[in-house]
Amino acid sequence: MAQGSGTRDGYRAAAAGLAAVTFGAGLGELSAALFLPAASPFAVIGGALIDIAPSWAKDLAIALFDTFDKAALLIGIAVVLAAIAAAAGLLERRRAGAGVVIVGAIGVVGAAIAMTRTGAGAFSWAPSAVAGAAAIVALRVLIRRLRPDLALAAPAGGESRPIDRRQFLIWTAAAGAVGVVALVAANVAHGASRSIEAIRKALRLPTAAERAAPIPAGAELDIPGLAPLVTPNRDFYRIDTALVVPQVDPAEWSLRIHGMVDRELVITWEELLALPMQEADVTLACVSNDVGGSLIGNARWLGHPIRELLARAGVADDADMVLSTSVDGFTASTPLEVLTDDRDSLLAIGMNGDPLPVEHGFPVRMVVPGLYGYVSATKWVTQLEVTRFDRVDAYWTTRGWDARGPIKLQSRIDVPRRGRQIDPGETMIAGMAWQQHVGVRGVEVRVDGGSWMTADLATAISDDTWVQWSVPWTAESGDHQIECRAISATGDTQTSNRTPPAPNGAEGWHRISVSVA
User: Fold this and answer.
1) Which of 3, 92, 376, 488 could lock 492 by a disulfide, CB 3.0 to 4.6 Å apart?
2) Cβ–Cβ < 8 Å for 299, 236
């Protein structure tokens, strides 16, 4: 009986730890939402984990969770925090003060990390400190109801006695409920995200001085299952290091161009809107996109050519790189030559006819054809520093990735889908191919290691976009393996050597297995 009671008290202590930490986390997040949104305890800890994660961990997260990698990280943080909270409750029941040290340490760590984040203010430590202090108080109050020696003082003349278990459960449930309500309230209190979205929706984009040509006839193949030629904004992949999407008011945004220039420039939002705008169809791809992956999308962008801003600043002859910086501190190293040649490298404000979605960099981002996004497509961009590769390393360069990141020749099979069963007879094999700013001349397909078949190539929008392709196939019963390879506009054939994304992009033929009924 005593053993069963001890076990039950252990469960109750663990529950007390969970309730206490939930209570503290809720108050910490609510205080951040009300006063210091950028200092959200979950956001600063999650951001730090993203920053210190090795490349293999990043690739694994994207491979497992695709564009839901950040949601998975937040869930993972919550699970680990729950385990620590339960352990703190158990330790506090066994030895007064032991659990308090643990939950207090979480608050101290969060506060310390908050002060090291980009844009940290004098009081960025406060939300995490609130979370830690509230969790300490809640844990001590709840555990007192499980330990007779820590029971609340009895009335004068009476004997000290523990409060009954039912009352403990009420207190624990109340603490947890307050924490949950505070977390919900914190989410509601993040009014900035709604106000910025309202500003975005009310914005009217300027008319382009240089409009993109209409999409040519025959560029889009009408094949079910084939990715659309132009990716809708809602479906465009999102990979970045921002755990919480930055909320940037255009009225407060500016771009500073400095470094190895003749004259430093600061461009405000209103000044940017007054500049001549250009439309360009450009396909963007993430360096973490594995062979046949979906971390790629095509859009029509609206923006001002970056080369014209750099010309105004006057670039030093020995400069060879532009380090772009996001409002959240992310940096990318872009070769100067690709920002000053004739390609459509834009300081973009529009995407497929609408202002940039907030998660895709509103109000301003970079779009550069021919490079992977990690060295070129900086979202929420606020600085362009003209410099040299031998002087400065960017965010991913310090983590072992290539500093320049040119796009590699790739192709993929969209139809039929991998692992699907199809009916025998006449069918189509179709997919996409790309090598931005080089272009694709052709695509070849083979089945079960047989002869290569030349696919029909759709009309490309330009060399800066992907292109659709298809080839008819008479499917016979059985299991089959289908492969594809692209041929660039310069005559290079996509390599068969399979390599992972790190350190400069995946290579190899896309290969799928299908079963014909």
Assistant:
1) 488
2) yes
- According to the model, what pLDDT value does residue 482 have? 97
Distance, CA of 156 to CA of 137 (rounded, Å) = 25
Nearest to 514 by CA among 416, 448, 398: 416
Q: What is the pLDDT of residues 407-445, one digit of tens each?
A: 999 999 999 998 888 999 999 999 999 999 999 999 999
CATH, domain range 410-516: 2.60.40.650
d(CA 24, CA 131) in angstroms, rounded, equals 4
Q: What type of residue is 221?
A: L
Instruction: Give me the chain's average pLDDT, please.
Output: 90
Q: Which fold has domain 233-399?
A: Sulfite Oxidase; Chain A, domain 2 (3.90.420)
Per-domain residue ranges of the chain: 2-189, 233-399, 410-516
Measure the CA–CA gap between 473 and 424, rounded to whole angstroms. 10
Q: Would you call 446 helix, strand, or coil by DSSP?
A: strand
**Dmax (CA) of the chain:** 97
Q: Find the mean pLDDT for residues 2-12.
A: 67
**Residue 498 gets which letter from DSSP?**
-
Return the residue matching tokens 């889908």. Answer: 417
Residues with Cβ within 8 Å of residue 23, at least 6 apart in sequence:
134, 135, 138, 175, 176, 178, 179, 182
pTM above 0.85, yes or no: no
pLDDT at 459: 97
Closest-CA residue to 403 (of 432, 423, 375): 375
